[in-house]
Amino acid sequence: MKKKHNALLSGPYLVWTAAFIVIPLILIVYYGFTDENHHLTLSNIAKITDPVTLKALFLSLLLSAMATVICLILAYPLAMILARMKNGASAIITTVFIIPMWMNSLLRIFAWQTLLERNGVINQVLSFLHLPPQHLINTPAAIALGMIYDYLPFMLLPLYNALTKLDWNVVNAAYDLGANRRQTFFKVIIPLTMPGIVSGITMVFVPALTTFVISDFLGGSKVLLIGNIIDQQFTQVGNWNAGSGLSLVLMIFILISMAVMQHYESDDEGVSSIL
Amino acid sequence: MSNKLIDLQHISKAFDGQLVLDDLNLYIRENEFLTLLGPSGCGKTTTLRILGGFEQPDKGKVIFDGKDITDLAPNKRQLNTVFQKYALFTHMNVADNIAFGLRIRKKSEDYIRDKIKYALKLVNLEGFENRMPDSLSGGQQQRIAIARAIVNEPKVLLLDEPLGALDLKLRKDMQYELIRLKNELGITFIYVTHDQEEALTMSDTIVVMNQGYIQQIGTPEDIYNEPQNAFVADFIGDSNIVGGTMVRDKLVEILGVRFACVDTGFGVNKPVDAVIRPEDLELYALPKGAEKGSPEYDKVSSKAYELNPGYFEGVVTDLIFKGVHYEMDVEANGYTWLVHSTKMFPVGTHVLMNLDPFNIQIMNKPESEDEQAVTLNEM
Ligand SMILES: Nc1ncnc2c1ncn2[C@@H]1O[C@H](COP(=O)(O)OP(=O)(O)OP(=O)(O)O)[C@@H](O)[C@H]1O
Ligand SMILES: [Mg+2]
Q: Residue B45 pLDDT > 70, yes or no?
């Protein structure tokens, strides 16, 4: 009786999972490994070795890794300050930092475009000050900046959660046993907040690696990320097979990075030694 | 006992405008076992945290070995703490927890391995090296916290209710172990508890605190036998505290009956409080229906009179067997007296009740505003 009940309740979720997760995944795998004549092939996967695509993939990996590290470095001290503040104050300030998340991502990136453009706000200010204009937009740096700005709250929130849960007596215990601030930070605070760090990194790295919106707005057509290449295959070239093949390659990179993160989450020694 | 090792001078501390410690003065001698005893929230942990360096006093100084360490960082202080809620490193196994302080001080791994073994043996958890703290019971975690502190051989060990989570049997064992440890290692112990029995059995010196004030400092015997005020008397063990009048030196009137006592210097006809321990009251059963003036009554009363020329007459209203003794309530002269006795007096027994003059402890009634803090209603 009870079992039947449970099955009934989980039914809608199973349908959802099948319709919107499993079936699309199967389709991507199918398209990825076939050509337009439905013959089995590895050529879609092999498209990754195309110099332009390969370059885009490496740039994506580089920029998203950079953005993730910078987000982590920016967000960790901030989260620590927030977590140590008195209840009311920290809630308000955290909300202020989270508010951008409620705004449309396109809007946020568009704002950066108008700031960085050749005739954008920054260059106007520079010319007003009789300084030479800077080439800001359509550079990898602009894309990295967009990623950092866009994804910082996603790093901040899990870190803040992990740090508010941290028992400060444990930190005091480390001081008590003779550890200085640096030792306490690396041997106790970091390992104990590892779950927050791992989810923060995942929440930033994965969307940054797959983004095509940020590179569209801030990279123009000059700087392409792997997301743009896949996007082009689907929307401009109309080659679903190639697009799916490249998506699969990207997925493998994401799976590898998540596996690495999981490994560090369970093995804290490893992280404190690499940090 | 030798010179002062730690000296707390005029320490005051407030949280959010609320005074938690008020002009606290206290010194601790080398090798002493000093216990801070008091009800929950009286500032025991705060005092330890100031000693450990985790909290800065608003006013006052902490002197250690003649040096002012008020502003010294916790990791530079020659003392270790066993925290009230264990505070183990949950991401490390037991061995790594214990080794933490030793690794910071760059001891050799051979030395560390020996120390871990030694410490685990000491706290009766041999073979627990590879367990994670989460998989241990509260009592086991507490013992690991003790092991983690003592391997560093600190000059002073601060212990914040370290045995609170243990069951009675284990607590007794650990009390014994801690005292042995203290004598073996020559460490000064500053111990926090709200268990008065624990304080009495373990300490060289007891500091009774209430609401940020020190109520009394003394040896366990002093504190138990000569409580300086009603708060201490009530907090340390059960006692009967009744108002009375000091008629003159060595004579006190309690609830209308005059008793000989040994106290002097309170003046003439001064209101006082008398503290009477339940085990100090002697009961004499009256035969059923014995009227005042009858020979049966006189036989009992003259026996009671031998102890003190004055006695109460009352009825046993409650009786509980406590293992070693019986605990009884005796209604007499409008007060319910708590009496401990190895002899049993059934409920309803008419009794005469008396006590040795030596066992009446006379205390001044609190008068000034300051002394109000001492009264019992806050408990
Ligand atoms: N960080 C803090 N912020 C605000 N108030 C505090 C803080 N630490 C302690 N207090 C308050 O100070 C008072 C004394 O606290 P303390 O922890 O010293 O008590 P305690 O004697 O150790 O009690 P217990 O036996 O319950 O552990 C309490 O009223 C407590 O609420
Ligand atoms: Mg406490």
A: yes
Question: Is residue A37 included in any domain, yes or no?
Answer: no
* Domain identity same for B274 and B218: no
- Which of A177, A267, A269 is the best substitution to test chain B (most B C-beta atoms within 10 A)? A177
Interchain CB contact of A176 with B (< 8 Å) = yes
Residue nearest to atom 24 of ligand 1 (CA): B40
| CATH number, domain containing residue B295 | 2.40.50.140
Share of chain A above pLDDT 70, in %: 95
Asked whether residue A106 carries a pLDDT value surpassing 90, the answer given is no
Task: Select from A241, A194, A227, A232 the least CA-distant residue to A40.
Answer: A241
Quickly tell me which residue has 């999972």 as its tokens: A17
Q: Does the residue B100 lie in any domain?
A: yes
B365: left (phi over 0), alpha (psi -120 to 50) or beta: beta
Question: Rounded to two decimals, what is the model's pTM?
Answer: 0.79
Residue from A84, A172, A176, A266 to probe the interface with B (highest B Cβ count within 10 Å): A176
Contact flag A173-B152 (C-beta cutoff 8 Å): no
First to last CA, chain A: 53
* Cα dihedral value A83, A86, A92, A94, nearest 10: 0
Q: Which atom of ligand 1 is nearest to the CA of B38?
A: 21
Domain-located, residue A186: yes
B80 → chain A, closest CA residue: A176
Taken in order B340, B345, B349, B352, is the CA torsion positive or negative? negative
Collapse the DSSP code of B327 into the 3-class scheme (helix H, G, I; strand E, B; otherwise coil) and give the result: strand
Terminal C-alpha separation, chain B: 34
Q: Is B331 exposed, middle or buried (0-12, 13-18, 19+ CB in 10 A)?
A: middle
**Which of B45, B158, B214 best tests ligand 1's pocket when mutated (most atoms within 8 Å of CB)?**
B45
Domain membership of residue B376 (yes or no) is no
Q: Write down the pLDDT at residue A2.
A: 53
Give the mean model confidence (pLDDT) for residues A85-92: 79
| Counted domains in chain B | 2
Count A/B contacts: CB-CB distance under 8 Å.
63
**B22 and B102, same domain (yes or no):** yes
Residue nearest ligand 1's atom 19 by CA:
B41
Per-residue confidence band for B247, with pLDDT thresholds at 50, 70 and 90: very high
- Residue A88: give the domain boundaries: 48-274
Q: Which residues pair with B207 in a beta bridge?
A: B36, B217
Mutate-to-test residue for ligand 1 from B16, B20, B83, B193, highest number of ligand atoms within 8 A of CB: B20
Range of the domain at B277: 238-364
Q: Are strands B251-254 and B282-285 parallel, antiparallel or unpaired?
A: unpaired
Mean local confidence (pLDDT), A170-185: 95
User: Which among B186, B212, B230 is the end of a domain?
Assistant: B230
Residue A233 located in a structural domain: yes
* Mean per-residue pLDDT over chain B, rounded: 90
> Domain total for chain A?
1
Distance CA B82, CA B162 (A): 7
Q: Is residue A72 one of the residues assigned to a domain?
A: yes
B21 forms beta bridges with: B13
